[in-house]
Automatic annotation (TrEMBL):
Membrane-spanning residues: 46-69, 81-99, 143-161
Family according to the record: Belongs to the glycosyltransferase 22 family.
Protein name, UniProt field: Mannosyltransferase
Signal peptide range: none
Subcellular location field: Endoplasmic reticulum membrane
Length: 167
């Protein structure tokens, strides 16, 4: 029996293939699939909201997987996509801070602390060390092979795309 759903074409997306390899079957992979499905259904505001859920409640570094469709959604329908992302982000960050306050007995944001520690090198970095931006670029090549190069090339080509070429 063949099941046809709005998300069936997702298996044809190279990004979906890479997310499956990099993240496996987990909530970020599922949210990325939903994000791609909403993109295909031409619902950019919902796609940005799903990306915000994945980044804030899931794994903050998954923003790299959500960025291409988020940028496209913002370019296509800026006002709706921006408002959807902003409202979702503010609500989820407030919820996250409240939950963190209940657990840690002080006002803090675990999402912000994770980003500060890993990206900016704040906190006690002598425990695990920190890496510069070149480390992440090298890991992008290592983990995503030629697709990372194609994604970087696409960022350079995107401003020159005509409406007939780009969806």
């Amino acid at each position: 029996m063949i099941v046809v759903s709005p998300f069936t074409p997702l298996h044809l997306f190279p990004l979906r293939f890479l997310v499956k390899i990099a993240l496996g079957v987990n909530r970020i992979g599922i949210l990325n699939s939903i994000n791609c499905g909403l993109f295909l259904l031409e619902k950019p505001a919902w796609a940005v909201a799903v990306a915000a859920v994945g980044v804030i409640l899931g794994w903050p570094f998954s923003i790299l997987a959500f960025l291409p469709l988020t940028f496209y959604s913002l370019a296509k329908q800026f006002k709706q996509a921006f408002l959807s992302g902003a409202v979702t982000s503010i609500a989820l960050l407030a919820l996250s801070i409240l939950v963190d306050h209940c657990y840690y007995q002080r006002w803090t944001s675990s999402v912000f602390n994770l980003l500060v520690y890993n990206v900016l090198g704040g906190g006690e970095s002598h425990l695990y060390g920190t890496e510069g931006p070149l480390f992440y670029i090298r890991n992008g090549f290592n983990n995503f092979n030629f697709c990372f190069i194609l994604a970087l090339l696409f960022l350079g080509i995107l401003p020159n795309c005509k409406e007939k070429v780009c969806p």
